[in-house]
Structure formats: C-alpha cells, structure tokens
User: Which sequence fits this backbone?
C-alpha cells in the first residue's frame, strides 16, 4: 500500500529554484495592506469596488447592527442585575461580523468563536430564541446546558459554540471537506480571534484545510486583545493574514470597521473557495471596545483614552452615515428601529426569565441512546440533594443571585 503511494508523493514534490545569494528572507519583506472602502465620514470613492448590495439587504444589515448594539447593552445590564450569569459583547466589531455574515449565503455553514452572535441574528435567530438561550430555560435549543452566548442553530447552519479556544478551526476544515465530498455548492466560514490563532488547533486546522483543499473561509477578528493580552505580546509578525501564504492559501487584510469592505471581501472569498474548492484567509482589523466578558475589567490593562479613540470609530455610525447619504434610510427610521428594539428586548427579558428551566430528568439525556445506570444513580442523588436545599435551586433562571 505504502509503496503504491510513494511515486505519486515524490512526483508532487516541488523543487524551489536554486540561488547563489545567501539571503535570509525577512519578515518585513511582505506587508499586507488593509483593504477599505468606506471613509469615517461615510463616503466611498467613485472607483470603489463595492459589494453586491441592494437597499433591502443594506437595511437588513443596519437593522442587525442596531439590534446587536441594543442587545449587548441590555444583556450586560441584565448580567449586572444578576438576571443572567455571564455575557460577552460584540461592541466595536459589529461591522466585521455582520459584513461577513451578509457576504455569505444561508446554505453556508458558520462555526463561531463566541463574539459573533450578530451573524446568527443576521441569519434569522429571533429575539425570543436569544433570550431562551441566555436564560437557559426549557425552550433553549441547547436545553440549558451551556453558558449564555454559546448559541447554536441547526436550522440556520450555525454550529454550537464551545468554550475551549480554537476547537472550531480544525472542525471548520472538516465541515468544508464534507461539503466538498458531497459536491455541495456551499462553503464554511470559521470565525476566530487573533488570540485563538496562537492555539495549536489554528495551525492544525489551517494546514489540514490547505492540504485537503477544503472550501473554508477562515475569518480572523483581530480586535487587538485576547482578554488582557495585547497584540504586541501575542505575535511578532505582521498579524495573522500572512500566515495564510505560509500554509498555501490566499489571504487578505480588511478594515473590520468598514462593513462594505468586509462584505466585499467575503463575497469574493466565497466565490473563490467555491470555484477553486480551496481555503482562504481573511483578517479583519478591528477593536474590542467592550470588556472581554462580564467577568473582565479592562481598566487594569488599557487606558480609557485608547478605548475612547476606538469608541469614536463606531463602525455602526459609519454605516449609518453611508445609508443616510445614499438616502436608503432616514434618521427617523433609524430612531424608530432603536426604540422598537429597546422595548422588545426589555419585554423579552421579563418573559424569558419567568419560563421554567428544563426538567431535571433531561440532564442525563442525549449522550447515550438510553441513559446508563451510573447516570441514573447520579440523577437520583442530585434529586435528593435538591430536595434538601430547595432555596439554592430555583425553578426559573430569573432568580439566580449575583
Ligand atoms: C484552550 C483555551 N485556553 C484559554 C481559554 C481562556 N480564554 C477565553 S477567551 C480567551 C481570549 C481569546 O482571545 P481572541 O481569540 O483574540 O478572541 P476575542 O476574545 O478577542 O474575541 C482566552 C485566553 C479558553 N477558553 N480556552
Ligand atoms: Mg482578540
């Protein structure tokens, strides 16, 4: 068997040209520029290569931006009030996430890291579905078994988030390989942070995708921090984009706060991965304006001035200006969307926290076809324990103490 494979492997070995110049290639020989379309004032140059976009889709993207901002603001407040246990905002990164989601088709698979709930919303996840997940109630698609923001939806081709960093990256190579083997006209987009790109899984996943030639779009949100670690301590090279070349795939760097540029590169990346049946890497340069999570306090590792500089670059504000210039939206319309979402989210929080938690018996389901004896014993012990300390086990999540 091995002997049969050998001649093919040898014939595919590429011999680089020889040289008499003893030159060590330097890391700064290639610096990847940042593709951008939309100015901070919300205008685009005359010759700009805009994405394929009509007014209806642009309004849907704007709606999603506004929803995400209000959801993040309200749910962080709910966490502070002790109504939910944990939260993570997408603040400052709305354009990177929504622009890329809008550059895909619904049949494409998404594997996220955790800060990309806006992509799920763009695909149609309803406000009430978001609430069921965050309150871990009996209607949660994940049956209340995950921390808040660990969403997933089979119907929307959005694979469930897992907390260990980087696991989605080799999985995305595998999902796309399956799409290729099944001859599907669909690709896989994998989100990850620049911090996760230091995980071994990043390197395994990128190499696997390139070697197997899978239609995967690797989408790095380079938001300048991995919790408290700034990019200056994360890597020594020119960010994440050039790593694509090392693995043998095309790469591009894009202004992650420019929703039009992100959408344009994602549309082109999608066309490339489908037609070439091969992977591609996008690095979106942005900034995590909020804390890492509700458990983090950034004042210990960065200045307020730095945050304010980026807060002023609000990517949603930039997109709103473009929509207004183009007369695709009015200020009144935008104000109305904001008002409606504030009311809707507040009402849904109240509603979701009054819904019972999943029945305790479901806790041992879905691993084995029939729960094993040792799981049944553990469940019986748990029930005895809950009976003894009922005050510590509320029937709804709304009474979790902070
Ligand atoms: C394997 C593993 N190591 C460490 C952590 C803890 N952790 C959670 S998020 C995070 C930072 C990730 O940063 P980045 O990938 O840049 O994403 P961002 O939070 O900036 O969106 C770390 C270290 C983890 N969840 N899993
Ligand atoms: Mg980061």
Assistant:
């Amino acid at each position: 068997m091995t002997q049969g494979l050998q001649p093919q492997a040898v014939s595919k070995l590429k011999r680089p040209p020889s040289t008499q110049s003893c030159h060590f290639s330097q890391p700064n020989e290639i610096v990847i520029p940042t593709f951008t379309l939309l100015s901070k004032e919300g205008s685009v140059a005359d010759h700009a290569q805009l994405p394929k976009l009509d007014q209806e889709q642009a309004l849907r993207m704007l709606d999603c931006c506004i929803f995400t901002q209000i959801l993040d603001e309200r749910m962080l407040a709910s966490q502070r009030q002790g109504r939910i246990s944990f939260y993570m905002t997408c603040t400052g990164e709305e354009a990177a996430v929504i622009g890329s989601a809008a550059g895909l088709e619904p049949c494409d698979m998404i594997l996220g890291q955790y800060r990309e709930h806006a992509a799920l919303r763009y695909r149609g996840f309803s406000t009430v579905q978001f609430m069921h997940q965050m309150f871990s109630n009996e209607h949660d698609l994940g049956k209340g078994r995950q921390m808040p923001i660990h969403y997933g939806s089979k119907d929307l081709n959005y694979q469930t988030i897992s907390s260990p960093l980087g696991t989605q990256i080799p999985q995305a190579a595998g999902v796309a390989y399956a799409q290729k083997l099944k001859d599907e006209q669909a690709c896989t987009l994998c989100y990850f942070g620049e911090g996760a790109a230091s995980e071994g899984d990043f390197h395994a996943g990128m190499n696997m995708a390139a070697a197997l030639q899978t239609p995967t779009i690797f989408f790095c949100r380079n938001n300048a921090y991995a919790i408290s670690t700034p990019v200056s301590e994360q890597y020594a090279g020119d960010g994440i984009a050039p790593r694509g070349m090392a693995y043998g795939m095309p790469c591009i760097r894009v202004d992650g706060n420019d929703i039009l540029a992100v959408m344009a590169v994602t549309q082109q990346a999608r066309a490339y991965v489908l037609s070439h049946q091969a992977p591609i890497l996008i690095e979106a340069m942005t900034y995590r304006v909020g804390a890492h999570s509700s458990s983090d306090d950034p004042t210990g590792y960065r200045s307020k001035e730095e945050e304010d500089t980026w807060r002023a670059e609000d990517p949603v504000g930039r997109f709103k200006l473009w929509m207004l210039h183009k007369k695709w939206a009015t200020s009144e319309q935008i104000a109305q969307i904001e008002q409606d979402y504030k009311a809707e989210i507040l009402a849904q929080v109240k509603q979701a926290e009054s819904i019972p938690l999943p029945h305790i018996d479901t806790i041992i389901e879905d691993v084995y076809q029939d729960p094993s004896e040792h799981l049944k014993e553990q469940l019986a012990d748990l029930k005895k324990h809950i009976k003894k300390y009922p005050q510590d086990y509320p029937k709804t999540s709304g009474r979790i103490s902070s």
Observations:
- Residues 193-195, 223, 225-226 surround magnesium ion (ligand 2) (CB under 6 Å).
- The chain has 14 helices and nine strands.
- The longest helix spans residues 55-80.
- Residues 360-393 form one domain.
